[in-house]
Structure formats: C-alpha cells, structure tokens
Structure prediction request, 239 residues.
Amino acid sequence: MKYSSQQSAVSSQQKRTHCIKTIICLFILICISSINIHAAERRTPNGERQVGSSSPFDGLKNTYSGVNSLEAVFHQKIFIASLKKERTFEGDFFYKRHKGFLWKYRTPKVKFFLYDGQYMWQGEDEKPFVVKERIRKEKTTGTFLDLIEDIARVDELFTLKQQSIDGSLEVLEIVPKKDSTANAAKIWIDKQNIVRRIEIHEFTGNINTIEFSAVKINQGVEDRLFIYRPEKGKEILEK
Prediction:
C-alpha cells in the first residue's frame, strides 16, 4: 500500500513537472531576450516606443551566448479551471549554463524541482521520498528541456504572435509551434528590459501567472545549488 501511494504521488509530481518545465524555460528565454529586446526599437518624436521590423528572437539568439546565470524571486498564481479556484506560491529560481536549474518553492509548502544536467529531482519537505528521473538527451529534442541548452532553435519552437505596448510595459504574445502544456503566453517587460510578469495559458484551461522581482543576470550563481545531496530519512525513487 505504501509503494502504491508513493507511485501515485510520483505520477502527480510528473504531471506538475511538465508545467514547471514550461514555466522555467519560458522564463529563461524571456529574461535573456529582454537584454536586447529593444535593440531594434525606434522611438517616435514624442518619445514613445516604436516596434522595429526585426524579431526579438534575433536578439535572443545573438545574446544568449553571453548569458551564464539567472537568479530571481517569483510570486506565482495559478487559476485552476476545473476547480474555479486560485492558488498562490512564492519561491526562488536559479539557472546556470551547463549546470542546470533550481525552482524552489518557499510557500505554501517547501518543495523543489532541480535539474542537474542529467537528472530531474523533485521533492517536498512533507514527503518521505525524492523522485529522481533521468533526462535522456536523445528524447529531449524539441522539448523545453532541450531548449535550455539549444537556444538557437527558439524560432523553430515558438511564434511571436503580437508585440505591443501596455502603458510603460512592452507586451509579447508567443505561441508554441508544437504541442505542449502551454497554448499561449504573454510577457510584460519594463523600460529597464526586466521581465515583470508572465501569463501562461495551458491546454487544461488553467492560467499560470508569475511575477518576478530581484532579477539578476550574470551575477554569479554557486555550482552547489545544482547538486542534489541526499537528505536524512528520504528515500530516492528512481524512474
């Protein structure tokens, strides 16, 4: 019975992982693109932004080679369509090129999603186990995990649907070209080229909104964050 309940919990975590991968990689893409997102901008005589003819994906691909790390605090709201309820979460996000990423929740429960370049680790403080899933490179082609290390393919996977201005913020609407957990996404970027909000519309009808603060790019992230260290009393369930 214990094993069966753990398997059920693992299955539930796997479903959540698909959504987490989507969010993480969209954030990586968007933060990086925001560095040079306005490189092709022009301004009208009254100082307003005017969208250039170049795609922001061009700037993304040109600048990604110089981005080695990202760090941010996030506040997340998920509207669950089936329940017609909204849930809120807060936590920290870390990414380092060739090392992996850590998506760590602080509230309402302490839990994490850690990708170390080979394995995806998932755990919660209240759970007596940690899930370890091997990520095989040959099976990640065309997925969001593949995109982390293969940013040059971004325009093969996403289409820029619309680029507009909302007050002092620039808004990008993008859609995936292939089937994924996300049907569409909107991104708000401020005048300092910092991503302030992402809104992801999932195929389930759920709406996932994430607001970021304290975004740091290339300010150093320690390698130890991307190494899972066994926790006392925690069983490792390997897929």
About this structure: Helices lie at 2-35, 56-63, 144-149, 154-157. The longest strand covers residues 69-80. The chain has one domain: 2-41+55-238.
